[in-house]
Structure formats: C-alpha cells, structure tokens
TrEMBL record:
<dbReference type="InterPro" id="IPR036188">
    <property type="entry name" value="FAD/NAD-bd_sf"/>
</dbReference>
<protein>
    <submittedName>
        <fullName>Oxidoreductase</fullName>
    </submittedName>
</protein>
<keyword id="KW-0560">Oxidoreductase</keyword>
<dbReference type="GO" id="GO:0050660">
    <property type="term" value="F:flavin adenine dinucleotide binding"/>
</dbReference>
<dbReference type="InterPro" id="IPR050982">
    <property type="entry name" value="Auxin_biosynth/cation_transpt"/>
</dbReference>
<dbReference type="Pfam" id="PF13738">
    <property type="entry name" value="Pyr_redox_3"/>
</dbReference>
<dbReference type="Pfam" id="PF13450">
    <property type="entry name" value="NAD_binding_8"/>
</dbReference>
<feature type="region of interest" description="Disordered">
    <location>
        <begin position="111"/>
        <end position="142"/>
    </location>
</feature>
<feature type="compositionally biased region" description="Low complexity">
    <location>
        <begin position="124"/>
        <end position="141"/>
    </location>
</feature>
<dbReference type="GO" id="GO:0004497">
    <property type="term" value="F:monooxygenase activity"/>
</dbReference>
C-alpha cells in the first residue's frame, strides 16, 4: 500500500451526532486539540446527527428523552418547531462554541490495521497532526501499528478510534412472503416525511417502537384506515421512568453486550411511555394491535387465522441496526453476532471504542459514554506501557 499523504492523529471520532460530539467535547477537556490531536468526521451534510433527517411534523415538544450535550444546555427552543431544525441548530451552535471543527461531508469507507512498518507522513503544506517525529513508525497496542481510517477525503492513521455512527444509516427491513407482489407502496419509517402522503389511504404500520406509534397516530388522522402490527404485544409504561428503572434497563442491555450479543431495541427494555396522545390512541382503537401477518398479497395482508386486511401502503417502523460495516476489517464481532465490550472499549481491540452503541444508545447514555471513552483513551495513550504507546504531548485545554 502507498502511505504517501496519510495524516497521523491520535484519535479519530467517526460521527457527529450526540455521542460523537460528547466524545469530542471530552477529548478537548482531557487535553486533545481538534484538528491536531483528534479529528471528527461526519458524513451528514450539516450538523444535527440523525435528528436532521426526522420528519417535519415531529415537533420539538414531541421528542422523547432528549438530553443536553455536556457543557451547554438547549434553551429557548420553540416547542412547535420541527425537532430537526431545533436540534440541528443546537448541534451547530455546540460545534462552533467548543471549536470542534467537524469535517463534513466525509464518508468513512473502512478501518483496518495499518501494518507494522509504515512511515506516516503529512500532506505537503499541512501542519503535522501527530506527536512522533516525521517519518517515524508509531507503536500501537500489542506491537501493532496505527489504525488506518480510509475516507472519501483521504486516509488517517489513528492511535485510537471512537466510533459514534449510530444506526440511522442501517434501517431494518423485515422480510415477508408476498412483498414482491404487493401492489401498494412499501417504505421504512426512515423515509416517512409526514402524514399527507397517506391521505385517504389504507395503511398497515409494522413495528412496536416509539416511531411506529408516533407515525401511526399522525397517519390515522388523515388515512381511510390504519392497522397496527407488532411482533410481540407492546408494553405501555405508566408513571415516571426514574434512575432506578433507567439503571435496570441499561444493565439488561449491557449484559447482552458483555456476552457479545447484538443489543436489543431501546423500547424492548424500557416499554412505551403512556403519554396523553397514546392514551387517546388506545381509547379510540387506533392503537389496537394485531400480531404479524403471515404474508402480503397484491392488495393487502393475510394472517394465518384467515384474517385479511386491504392496504394501499405498508410502513415498516421496524427500527435500525448499528452502522458498523466500516469496522468489518478489524473483525470485532463475536460468534453471537455482536461486539463484546468492556465499558466503551471493544474486547478484541482496546484502541477501538463504541459510543452510542448498546447501553449508551440513549442521549444521556451517549453523553456518559463519550466521557468514558475520552478518559480511557487518554489513559491508554499516556499511561499504559503494556499497550506499547509512547507518551503523547497534551498541551491544549478548554474552559469547562
């Protein structure tokens, strides 16, 4: 491989949603400098993470469980404005306030082992972003070299990696017999842009999560008829969801991750909060749930008990999977299909941290994971001789 022009940095952060920005903030707090000691890469066209792609009728007052980023509250937002605009503007202000210098749009193509004898150099005319002398071959954990982060805008050689890519880019499409012959429209909730597209239509909504319920309640106001279908009976949660319940839910997800199993959806461990809108939906019959249908037909759906429903559209609000394909060359997955974790650190490679994955998939969890990853990486890069790292010069700081 030709290594000419590869840029050496201590840390690459992939993704600038809640988790990536929290990690970048805490990297600054422990002394790393943006665009010199670490870089933040984001493939989205503008600030806002996955929020920028949410449907316009999801106004800020309907957002469930949005926690502020570390060091800066979200204040003065109009609850009637689309959440994509409110949170996008907040993230934009956050990036500028703390000088995080997010590079976008940059797509990360792959992350792989760099080899043991590669001279890392800087593109001509740029300031060195590494801490080793020019032309040196930096050491890595267990005698390995740096990680090569190959992107649409060049390659970085990183001593550590924080992956914060979330799930938005991997919508999960379930497979059913008859999907290829259904004559109506089929779309995923990631493609949903509001209820008007379903006016006077007969719509089947598949999925038991928060997005499924929110979109179903919107569609029901304009559709000719709706049918709600879920794999298992939904669990509606009455009352507050306090710290004790939160810790229990996180512990259940964390245990799966420790075992190397894929994390389950958030709603599978928290249940659906019983809001006033949901209460009205249950009373009106909109949220009367049916089990999964057996197959689709040209004109609708059929159940194994003979029940049929005519439909013009099927909306799959079936969630997302972690967007981790670019990490495949590192072979981090366990036989169970997930990535085994110790805190935010992957078990198979201590240089690689996942934030916003598994138990840190919530916004408050992403904040905490970002801090944990930054602190652990600083320790790895400066204090642990068993990992083969040389000391890093940390000369920057920021105000809290």
């Amino acid at each position: 491989m030709n290594y000419t022009g590869v840029r050496a940095v201590d840390v690459v952060v992939i993704g600038a949603g809640q988790a990536g920005l929290a990690a970048a903030f805490h990297l600054r707090r422990v002394g790393y400098r943006p665009d010199r000691d670490f870089v933040v890469l984001d493939h989205s066209p503008r600030p806002g993470g996955a929020w920028q792609f949410r449907w316009p009728t999801l106004t800020y007052d309907k957002v469930h469980g949005m926690h502020a980023l570390p060091g800066m509250e979200l204040t003065g937002a109009d609850p009637r404005h689309p959440s994509s605009e409110v949170i996008g503007a907040y993230f934009d202000s956050y990036e500028r306030t703390f000088g995080l210098r997010v590079h976008r749009p940059v797509s990360v193509l792959s992350v792989r082992e760099g080899g043991g004898d590669s001279p890392w150099t800087e593109p001509a005319g740029t300031e060195s972003a590494g801490t080793e002398p020019a032309g040196a071959a930096p050491a890595g954990p267990l005698g390995q070299s740096r990680l090569l982060v190959e992107t649409s805008q060049g390659t970085y050689a990183a001593r550590a990696l924080i992956n914060a890519t979330g799930t938005w880019d991997r919508p999960f499409w379930p497979r059913f017999p008859g999907q290829e012959i259904f004559g109506g429209r089929q779309l995923h909730s990631a493609q949903y842009r509001g209820p008007e597209a379903f006016r006077a239509a007969r719509v089947v909504v598949v999925g038991g999560g928060t997005s499924a319920v929110q979109q179903l309640l919107e569609i029901a106001r304009v559709a000719a008829g709706t049918t709600w279908v879920t794999r298992r009976p939904p669990v509606f949660r009455e009352g507050p969801f306090g710290e004790e319940q939160g810790r229990a839910a996180v512990a259940r997800v964390a245990e799966r991750v420790r075992q190397g199993l894929p994390p389950r959806s958030v709603v599978s461990v928290t249940g659906l909060p019983m809001t006033e809108a949901i209460r009205r939906g249950r009373e009106s019959g909109v949220l009367e749930r049916l089990p999964l249908f057996e197959r689709l037909t040209p004109t609708g759906a059929v159940w194994d008990d003979g029940r049929t429903v005519e439909a013009d559209a099927v909306l799959y609000a079936t969630g997302f999977r972690p967007a981790l394909d670019h990490l495949a060359p590192l072979r981090l997955r366990e036989p169970g299909g997930g990535i085994r974790m110790e805190g935010t650190r992957t078990f198979r490679d201590p240089r690689v941290h996942l934030v916003g994955y598994g138990p840190s998939a919530s916004t408050i969890g992403a904040n905490r994971a970002g801090r944990a990853a930054a602190v652990d990486i600083r320790r790895l890069l400066t204090e642990d001789p068993q990992l083969g790292y040389g000391a890093t010069s940390l000369t920057g700081s920021i105000a809290s």
